[in-house]
Amino acid sequence: MARSFHEPDVSEARRIMDPAIEQMVGSLPVCQFSTKRFIEVMLEREEFETAYKAALATLGDEPEVALMALHGQVISVSLRNDARLNFAGFVRDDEPNHIDPFSHSSWWRKEL
Fold first, then answer.
1. Residue 53: inside a domain, yes or no?
2. What is the pTM of this model?
3. Cα(33)–Cα(95) distance, rounded to whole angstroms?
4. What span, in angstroms and rounded, lies between the C-alpha atoms of 40 and 69?
5. What does the alpha-carbon distance between residue 91 and residue 97 come to, in Å, rounded to a whole number?
6. Is 6 helix (H, G, I), strand (E, B) or coil?
7. 56, 102 contact by CB (below 8 A)
8. 45's torsion region: left (phi>0), alpha (psi -120 to 50) or beta?
9. Residue 12 CB contacts under 8 Å (≥ 6 apart), including other chains
10. How many domains does the chain have?
11. Greatest pairwise CA separation for the chain in angstroms
């Protein structure tokens, strides 16, 4: 029997995270960073950690699926949509400190 697949609705998580990510990107200097590192730095600041946890709580009861949706569909999409950032490629296996276990981590470049 085939398992059903239910993709979480990320609209509420995006509503929570988009302003936090916009603020965080605005506070960054010109730099290059990975999605994983962005999340790590974000979680070091209480106001962003609060938003992260609130968004995560909207994504269902399966912790791993919720984390995959938050990292891969909410945070990554918000970074991709930020005009101040340029996608700079995917993180490769030879850079293990930048690999996110919940999404395909990318490199981002802030140039403005």
1. yes
2. 0.89
3. 12
4. 17
5. 10
6. coil
7. no
8. beta
9. 55, 58
10. 1
11. 52
Residue 95 in any domain: the answer is yes
**pLDDT tens column, 3-17:** 666 677 899 999 999
Spatial separation of the C-alpha atoms in residues 87 and 32, rounded to whole Å: 10
CA distance 13 to 74: 7
Average pLDDT over residues 27-55: 97
Residue 81 belongs to some domain of the structure: yes
Q: How many CB atoms lie within 10 A of CB 3?
A: 5
41: phi then psi, degrees, rounded to nearest 5 = -70, -40
Reading the block at residue 61, the tokens are 């009861």
77-80, Cβ contacts within 8 angstroms, sequence gap of 24 or more: 77/14, 78/14, 78/17, 78/18, 78/21, 78/22, 79/21, 79/25, 79/35, 79/38, 79/106, 79/108
Q: Is the residue at 12 inside a domain?
A: no
DSSP string covering 45-74: SHHHHHHHHHHHHTS-S-HHHHHHHIIIII
Note the residue count of the chain.
112
- Domain span holding position 76: 31-110
31: which strand partners? 110
Residue 21 corresponds to which tokens in the numbers above? 């990510």
